[in-house]
């Protein structure tokens, strides 16, 4: 099952409650973002993977905040593209950064920087619709899950997410509605 790109927040699943966790809403996330704190938090994490994912998160937020989409490539390069367990995250993180950048900055051209992995469709068209704040464009999304998510985000409707029967997909949809509620 393909998921919409989700770096921000839920990959940094860390037991210790003192760890900085991004707030659920992107506006708050950007407002509270502090590069130094973010990197220091990343450096304090236990495993290499956690550190790298968190560093990628920091670069992604910096990209969005600074309006510098090329930092999304730097975000992705925080992960080792040759290492098992990390290399499959590289395109996901890159895509997530571009998606979030496009939606936050209403810059739909950036959606075209995303690369749809084999078997994943609708990622770019969902990005376009949400970045343009145009719910009729959700109809162009070729993937049923992303089409529902697209409408849910733009209507700010958790209720629409309930059309997704699989729990993981539904939760992902709720997260997206929470994330973009104050933006769209």
3D structure, described in words:
With 184 residues, the chain is mainly α. It has one domain (26-180). The chain has nine helices and no strands. It has helices at residues 26-32, 35-43, 48-66, 71-76, 89-104, 123-131, 144-155, 158-161, 167-180. The chain is globular. The two termini are 26 Å apart.
Query: Average pLDDT, to the nearest integer?
Result: 89
Largest sheet descriptor? none
Envelope shape: globular
Binned strand content: under 5%
Secondary-structure element string:
HHHHHHHHH
Structural class: mainly alpha
Total of DSSP H or I helical runs spanning 4+ residues = 9
Please tell me how large the radius of gyration is.
15 Å
Number of strands: 0
Q: What would the keywords be for this entry?
A:
184 residues, mainly alpha, 9 helices, globular, disordered N terminus
What is the gist of this entry?
This protein is mostly helical and 184 residues long. The protein is 52% helix and 0% strand.
SSE order and pairing:
Layout: H1 26-32, H2 35-43, H3 48-66, H4 71-76, H5 89-104, H6 123-131, H7 144-155, H8 158-161, H9 167-180
